[in-house]
From TrEMBL, chain B:
Keywords: Amino-acid transport, Cell inner membrane, Cell membrane, Membrane, Transmembrane, Transmembrane helix, Transport
GO biological process, one term: L-isoleucine import across plasma membrane
Keyword Nucleotide-binding part of the UniProt annotation: no
Organism, as annotated: Shimazuella alba
Xref: Pfam families: BPD_transp_2 (PF02653)
Name the UniProt record assigns to this protein: Branched-chain amino acid ABC transporter permease
UniProt record similarity statement: Belongs to the binding-protein-dependent transport system permease family. LivHM subfamily.
Cell location: Cell membrane
MF GO annotations: L-isoleucine transmembrane transporter activity; L-leucine transmembrane transporter activity; L-phenylalanine transmembrane transporter activity; L-valine transmembrane transporter activity
PANTHER family for the chain: BRANCHED-CHAIN AMINO ACID TRANSPORT SYSTEM PERMEASE PROTEIN LIVH, HIGH-AFFINITY BRANCHED-CHAIN AMINO ACID TRANSPORT SYSTEM PERMEASE PROTEIN LIVH
Automatic annotation (TrEMBL), chain C:
The protein's name in its UniProt record: ATP-binding cassette domain-containing protein
GO cellular component, one term: plasma membrane
Organism: Shimazuella alba
Keyword annotations: ATP-binding, Nucleotide-binding, Transport
The UniProt record lists the keyword Transport: yes
Molecular function per GO: ATP binding; ATP hydrolysis activity; L-isoleucine transmembrane transporter activity; L-phenylalanine transmembrane transporter activity; L-valine transmembrane transporter activity
Gene3D superfamilies for the chain: P-loop containing nucleotide triphosphate hydrolases
Phylogenetic placement of the source organism: Bacteria, Bacillati, Bacillota, Bacilli, Bacillales
Domain ABC transporter: 4-252
InterPro entries reported for this sequence: AAA+_ATPase (IPR003593), ABC_AA/LPS_Transport (IPR051120), ABC_transporter-like_ATP-bd (IPR003439), BCA_ABC_TP_C (IPR032823), P-loop_NTPase (IPR027417)
UniProt-listed PANTHER family: AMINO ACID ABC TRANSPORTER ATP-BINDING PROTEIN, CONSERVED COMPONENT OF ABC TRANSPORTER FOR NATURAL AMINO ACIDS-RELATED
Domain of life: Bacteria
SMART domains per record: AAA
Length: 412, 325, 259
């Protein structure tokens, strides 16, 4: 009785929710700040974003609080101990994955096209910056103009996105004529082709430096300041991520977004409504790819190194798992899915492995870190069977009929 | 050019060997697709599991010091592997596909990818647990090789050598294909299978047990895929948990090439793809003047897949199907 | 002058001639019914006109413009809209969103302006939503505007499909068995709706229907197909008494009310 009364009170009062949320944020950020490397505290702090999603606060307030959390509270709270860079490393990687998952969500979630080679576009972005910002370009073009300085990083975010979009279109033109399930196989094949090509383009002309990869890639630079630490890259990633989220939100309920969903639901009916199939699908490929491409540029600048081994099929599947787990077509869902899987990959599995090896001296074979495939497999099967719409189901946009009536009508 | 020609006999032999494997694995894809319109992504992994189960059985025979004539061992292991992988196939269908028959098309595909990953990791786990390494090298049942004197037929040809294992592989895969063809076209259960593939609802009305037929399809497809996995392990000696993936993709290509759902088409598709791939691996470098080498052979196979899907999606031997509006 | 003209339209599937040398001239503003036994080629004829299939022979013109070798979306752009025999709504989308998809060709916001959410985009979207709501009112589904299409009852789904087709601002509206599965009361409402939209939206309507009461009541012209061929055409009275029509129906044992 007590509990239910309480929960009713919570449900009805945004003020109550807000104060509880702030309390929660305060407690979890304080623990992150004062505790020495506590994964639990960090997860709780991230969890406050999820809580925020479920409150009934106004959209504007939600935006303000999440911005505060991401830009001020999280960077500050993690700066307390010695593990700031570890936390920020996780946050940066998670941000990169979220952007990619949101890109894939356009293709799989909105347009209903199963793309199993999505990481190829990430690779395109990474190599676009990697080649020109490393000694590779100097060798390739025999010019002292290269490698480009770190200040070029900023325009290259756009260029990387555009290159990926261009490749999305180039791949899409033949691939999107293929029907239904075959698309999955063909994109999978293309993903592998791109990797093999990057792996072997050190001859006859050395473009990608083959399996050795590209090293000494310049770090971003602005007004003489060089970005080198994870805690600095964090702000770049957050900025791009915010742009991506706003873009996806705006696309979702636009003419193009509705066309994607219409194609997903029924291609023939969509065509009968005047929607051109191939063109609309190409837009999905191009826009989805561009998010990945932008983050590819960040990835290569941060690691100062790229090689083909970062772009294997398992990466494509990882991004797919994020989308499926979170909820195909659901923007908050995909963000949640990407966060869960990244944190699982980067922190929880490592922690559990360390814990097990230290306390039980288990063999390396059993190490949870190696069981990524098993975990992904189980997640995919369970979600497919029990929760095909993911953790946060995509909700169609509701309108207020009161605002749609021009004048007093005589309906009915 | 003369190099290409003189190496042709060996290319053909190697190509047909690889092609025979593709063909049998392609059968599994094509049968399931024919009946459920589902790309059974896990089929490549069933093939891989077969390779490990068979090799595991063979190695444990050695451990227990059981000695039998090689051909008895071979048949025994093939049958056991087929039985186990067949059951594995039935289990996968029950667990991961049957609950999703009414779901939107994307969902069973996702489940299939999931199963594929689960199998890869389980096999890796067992292999590492038992041998300490996920790459396993088995023992060979049949040593020795035969030389076919092509040069005495036409002077420009070089001779081709065939391992005894290869002869067995080709022989057994041909037997499998003939038996399957007879089964599907001449027996009651084969007819039921074709009926379900044509129209599930009508078949059910004709008092065909659709679920049973689907289970049977999975059993047969998986059993022959798994048995072929063991033959593959014998042929190429080294196996790892990830061999099924690319091979499965290529076998699927073969199935599409032959017209998906078409059993004879899959056999021809497999053989054609195998020969083309080995030919490409041997000669891409010569043909392109060294620009593109044999490392592009997978790219070559995928390119075929994509070209077929774009220009002739019904395959070489299939009929085009129009969606009902 | 006729708005839509078919000359010698023929389509074969394998050995089967689904539509055989069909001629027709549909007058602007008319309601025409296409009837015939199951498998007579009625829906195939719709699919040929709307571009889902390509005819093997013959010509199809809308107000003098040929519709041959055009994709379905281009044909929709010329002013031909349709509903489907087996209802093809966008199931996960709301009723209002379904209508908005129908308005696709009449919305012009560019991608860049959408991403920047310029005032022009917002204005266009607002107007579109208002217009969509009006269309829902027309078919009596206004209060269902936020319902997902899959959750609507059958009769309402059929009406939503009509509203969605109207959203494309068509010249010609094709209805494929609009009354299928409806009870007599629903059919009566539908009959009135069809006549009303023809008048309000200045439409030419062509429908396939098995409900002879509905057909006889609203059509000015009836075309009868059997085995892919046009065996008769004329006004309801002429069709009612045409011996070939009676044979086509009774000969197959398919007795229907009204005949």
């Amino acid at each position: 009785m007590e509990m239910s009364k309480w929960s009713v009170m919570m449900k009805d009062s945004p003020k109550m929710q807000l104060s509880m949320l702030l309390l929660f944020i305060l407690a979890s950020s304080a623990s992150v700040y004062f505790l020495e490397r506590s994964v639990t505290a960090f997860l709780l702090l991230l969890g406050s974003l999820l809580l925020l999603h479920y409150t009934s606060l106004s959209n504007r307030l939600k935006w303000i609080i999440s911005l505060l959390l991401l830009v001020v509270i999280i960077p500050f709270a993690t700066s307390g101990g010695t593990s700031q860079q570890d936390y920020m490393e996780v946050a940066v990687q998670t941000g990169i994955y979220i952007a990619m998952a949101l890109g894939l969500n356009i293709v799989v979630g909105f347009a209903g096209l199963l793309d199993l080679g999505f990481v190829a576009f990430f690779a395109i972005g990474a190599y676009t910056y990697g080649i020109f910002a490393s000694p590779q370009a100097a060798q390739l073009f025999h010019s002292d103009f290269f490698p480009l300085a770190g200040t070029w990083f900023w325009p290259f975010i756009i260029i990387g996105g555009l290159m990926a979009a261009l490749f999305g279109i180039l791949l899409g033109i033949p691939v999107l004529r293929v029907k239904g399930d075959y698309l999955a196989i063909v994109t999978l094949g293309f993903g592998e082709i791109i990797r093999i090509v990057f792996n072997n383009m050190d001859k006859p002309v050395n473009i990608t430096n083959g399996a050795q990869g590209l090293s000494q890639i310049n770090q971003p630079e602005i007004f003489g300041f060089t970005f080198s630490l994870a805690s600095q890259f964090y702000f770049i990633v957050i900025a791009i991520l915010l742009i991506v989220i706003i873009a996806v939100r705006r696309l979702e309920d636009s003419k193009l977004g509705r066309s994607w969903k219409a194609i997903r639901e029924d291609e023939i009916a969509a065509q009968a409504m005047g929607i051109p199939l191939v063109k609309t699908k190409l837009w999905a490929f191009a826009l989805g790819a561009s998010f990945s491409g932008m983050m590819g540029v960040v990835f290569s600048a941060k690691n100062m190194f790229v090689d083909p081994s970062s772009f294997t099929l398992i990466e494509s599947i990882t991004i797919l798992v994020m989308v499926i787990l979170g909820g195909m077509g659901s923007v908050p869902g995909v963000i949640l899915g990407a966060t869960i899987i990244s944190v699982l990959n980067l922190q929880i599995l490592t922690e559990v492995t360390n814990f097990l090896t230290q306390n039980f001296s288990i063999s390396d074979t059993l190490s949870p870190m190696k069981m990524q495939r098993l975990i992904f497999g189980v997640v995919l099967v369970l979600i497919a069977i029990y929760r095909p719409k993911g953790l946060i189901t995509a909700k169609p946009k509701k309108v207020d009929p009161g605002k749609l009536i021009d004048q007093p009508t005589t309906d009915k | 050019m003369s190099n290409i020609l003189s190496a042709l006999p060996q290319v053909l032999v190697d190509g047909l060997t690889l092609g025979a494997i593709y063909a049998v694995v392609a059968l599994g894809y094509t049968m399931v697709y024919g009946i459920l319109e589902l790309i059974n992504f896990a089929h490549g992994e069933i093939f891989m599991s077969g390779a490990f189960i068979g090799t595991g059985l063979l190695l444990s025979l050695g451990v227990f010091g059981i000695a039998m004539p090689a051909w008895i061992t071979l048949i025994l292991i093939l049958l056991l592997t087929a039985l186990l992988t067949g059951l594995l196939g039935i289990g996968i269908e029950r667990l991961a596909y049957r609950p999703l028959r009414k779901a939107p098309r994307l969902i069973p595909l996702i489940s299939a990818i999931g199963i594929s990953f689960i199998l890869q990791d389980l096999v890796r786990f067992f292999a590492e647990f038992k041998t300490g390494n996920y790459i396993v090298t088995g023992t060979t049942l049949f040593e020795g090789k035969v030389t076919i004197p092509f040069s005495s037929i036409i002077g420009t040809f070089h001779n081709a050598t065939i391992k005894n294992n290869t002869l067995i592989l080709i022989g057994i895969t041909i037997i499998i294909m003939i038996l399957l063809d007879i089964f599907v076209n001449r027996t009651k259960w084969g007819t039921a299978m074709r009926a379900v593939a044509q129209d599930q609802e009508t078949a059910a009305l004709m008092s065909i047990n659709v679920n049973k037929v689907i289970s049977l399809t999975f059993f047969i497809g998986s059993a022959i895929g798994g048995a072929t996995g063991f033959l593959f392990a014998q042929q190429y000696a080294t196996i790892d948990p990830y061999i099924g993936f690319i091979l499965g993709l290529k076998a699927f290509t073969a199935a599409v090439l032959g017209g998906i759902g078409n059993i004879r088409g899959a056999m021809f598709g497999g053989l054609i793809l195998g020969v083309l791939e080995v030919f490409a691996a041997a000669n891409l470098s010569t043909i392109t003047g060294g620009v593109i080498g044999s490392e592009y052979k997978d790219v070559f196979a995928f390119t075929i897949l994509i070209l077929v899907l774009i220009f002739k999606p019904e395959g070489l031997f299939g009929k085009s199907v129009k969606e009902k509006v | 002058m006729s708005l839509l003209e078919l000359k010698g339209v023929t389509k074969q599937f394998g050995g089967l001639t689904a539509v055989n040398q069909v001629d027709a001239a549909i007058k602007q503003g008319s309601i025409t019914a296409i009837i015939g036994p199951n498998g007579a080629g009625k829906t195939t004829l719709f699919n040929l006109i709307t571009g889902i299939y390509k005819p093997d022979k013959g010509s199809i013109t809308l107000a003098g413009t040929s519709l041959l070798n055009r994709k379905p979306n281009q044909i929709a752009g010329y002013g031909i809209a349709r509903t489907f025999q087996n209802i093809r709504l966008f199931k996960e989308m709301t009723a209002l969103e379904n209508i908005l998809v129908g308005m696709h060709t009449h919305l012009h916001s560019s991608l860049i302006s959408t991403l920047l959410r310029l005032p022009s985009v917002r204005k266009e979207e607002d107007n579109a939503a208002r217009h969509a709501y009006q269309l829902l009112q027309t078919v009596g589904l206004a209060e269902k505007c936020n319902e997902q299409a899959k959750n609507l009852p059958y009769g309402e789904q059929r009406r939503l499909e009509i509203a969605r087709a109207l959203a494309t601002k068509p010249k010609v509206l094709f209805l494929d068995e609009p009354a299928a599965g409806m009870n007599p009361k629903e059919t009566k409402v539908l009959t009135e709706l069809i006549i009303q939209v023809r008048d309000d939206f200045d439409l030419t309507i062509i429908l396939i229907e098995h409900d002879m009461k509905l057909v006889m009541k609203i059509s000015e012209e009836i075309i009868v197909l059997d085995y892919g061929q046009k065996i008769a055409s004329g006004n309801p009275d002429e069709i009612r008494t045409n011996p070939r029509v009676i044979e086509a129906y009774l000969g197959k044992g398919a007795v229907r009310n009204g005949l």
